């Protein structure tokens, strides 16, 4: 079974990121859960364990210019398909968090709230979130005007103030209401 989930649908900046994970049996850490309810430090501890204990895993990205061109929904599905295509094995079943199944050449089922119930999707949510957060921190070293290392592109007061002061960066989503 492969679980797929995304991170970064809502931010004003940066990519939307998806991960696909095939666990190699029961995951050995009971802290595995939806990335939204796991403390950031715990997510960082779990991510290498997930990679180590998975039969296969991959991360897929859709970039801000793609989000602006095809919209966030389609960009999310694109990132998910890219993550699936990055796997080196084909699973017998793909479970995708949310309302939409993917056309990926394997049986696929959408699972509403799957990130709260299905370990493979929980693991995918953590890999997607940690990969995206790391990317945003790295980008903040290139362009330190926005504080991406602290808010990861989400619409915080600080981010909106910096956006008004500096205007949009190359990674801001022009199709989103930025200010």
Automatic annotation (TrEMBL):
Record-level Gene Ontology MF annotations: metal ion binding; RNA binding; RNA-DNA hybrid ribonuclease activity
HAMAP family: RNase_HII_B (MF_00052_B)
Top-level taxon of the source organism: Eukaryota
Gene Ontology CC entries for this record: cytoplasm; ribonuclease H2 complex
Binding annotation for a divalent metal cation: 5-6, 97
Name this polypeptide is given: Ribonuclease
Organism: Geodia barretti (Barrett's horny sponge)
Cofactor(s) for this UniProt protein: Mg(2+); Mn(2+)
Cofactor note: Manganese or magnesium. Binds 1 divalent metal ion per monomer in the absence of substrate. May bind a second metal ion after substrate binding.
Domain RNase H type-2 stretches: 1-179
InterPro entries: RNase_HII (IPR022898), RNase_HII/HIII (IPR001352), RNase_HII/HIII_dom (IPR024567), RNaseH-like_sf (IPR012337), RNaseH_sf (IPR036397)
Any one GO BP annotation for this protein: DNA replication, removal of RNA primer
Reaction(s) the record says it catalyses: Endonucleolytic cleavage to 5'-phosphomonoester
């Amino acid at each position: 079974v492969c679980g797929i989930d995304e991170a970064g649908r809502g931010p004003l900046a940066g990519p939307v990121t998806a991960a696909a994970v095939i666990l190699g049996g029961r995951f050995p850490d009971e802290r595995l859960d939806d990335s939204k309810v796991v403390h950031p430090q715990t997510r960082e501890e779990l991510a290498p364990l997930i990679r180590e204990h998975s039969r296969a895993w991959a991360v897929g990205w859709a970039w801000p210019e793609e989000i602006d061109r095809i919209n966030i929904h389609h960009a999310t599905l694109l990132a998910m398909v890219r993550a699936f295509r990055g796997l080196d094995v084909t699973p017998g079943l793909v479970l995708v968090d949310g309302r939409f199944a993917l056309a990926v050449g394997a049986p696929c089922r959408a699972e509403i709230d799957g990130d709260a119930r299905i370990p493979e999707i929980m693991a995918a949510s953590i890999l997607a979130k940690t990969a995206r957060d790391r990317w945003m921190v790295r980008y903040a070293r290139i362009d330190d005007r926005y504080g991406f290392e602290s808010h990861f592109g989400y619409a915080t007061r600080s981010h909106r103030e910096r956006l008004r002061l500096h205007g949009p960066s190359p990674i801001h989503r022009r199709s989103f209401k930025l200010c």
